[in-house]
Specification:
Elements (H helix, E strand, L loop, with lengths): L2 H8 L9 H10 L5 E7 L8 E8 L8 E9 L4 H13 L12 H11 L13 H17 L2 H12 L5 H8 L3 H8 L3 H8 L7
Parallel strand pairs: 1-3
Antiparallel strand pairs: 2-3
Helix pairs in contact: 3-5, 4-5, 7-8
């Protein structure tokens, strides 16, 4: 499964908030067999808000190894942030294999680059994994505040009858991401994220 297929599958969902377990269930229904566990941990949120660890375990000598996944989120975050972080990290399960970061030096560099404030980010010179991690945030926002729900909110938001805080509360996502999804540029961002490769 590719990310654009997952986004399109949730595009018309209107019942908010979207449960992150529904995203996981959809991945499983479409071929993902990973053994996933969400784990609250004491992280330093200024440096790292969440992480995914993937490894293989074999239950016996003549058994195929099973892919195990631990998704860590900062347990001190509010529920809306925990949901966003878990959804974002979950999306890494469908990243292509060449994007996996598995060497200590690369993981350190990724953590350094992800933690940079916007004015210090350099997407043209940073690792591909860093940019994919940032795109995963936008994809998670698109899943947790689906396009059709956004479109229903839009006239009320434009008329000042709904605020970003109201929408964030309905979707149970951080205000920052509700603001991104409600921004007029979101239509183009979403279209780019859901475009199939080679299709204009």
């Amino acid at each position: 499964m590719e990310a654009h297929d997952l986004l399109k599958a949730f595009e018309y969902r209107l019942k908010l908030p979207i449960d992150v377990n529904d995203v996981l269930a959809y991945l499983r229904e479409h071929g993902n067999t990973d053994n996933v566990e969400f784990i609250g941990a004491d992280l330093e949120p200024d440096i790292l808000q969440g992480a995914v660890k993937i490894w293989y375990a074999r239950a016996g000598v003549y058994v195929e190894p099973e892919r195990m996944v631990n998704i860590y989120y900062h347990r001190g975050h509010s529920k809306d942030w925990q949901r966003m972080i878990c959804c974002k990290e979950l999306l890494h399960l469908i990243d292509p294999a060449w994007l996996c970061t598995n060497e200590a030096a690369a993981i350190d560099k990724l953590a350094d680059e992800i933690g940079l404030p916007p004015e210090m980010q350099d997407p043209f010179n940073e690792m591909a994994e860093t940019n994919v991690d940032r795109v995963a945030e936008l994809r998670a926002a698109a899943l947790l505040l689906p396009l059709e729900a956004r479109n229903i909110f839009r006239p009320y938001y434009d008329a000042g009858k709904l605020s970003i805080d109201d929408i964030a509360r309905q979707a149970d996502i951080p205000r920052k991401y509700a603001g991104i999804v409600m921004h007029p540029a979101w239509d183009d961002i979403y279209a780019t994220m859901t475009r199939r490769k080679g299709v204009e």
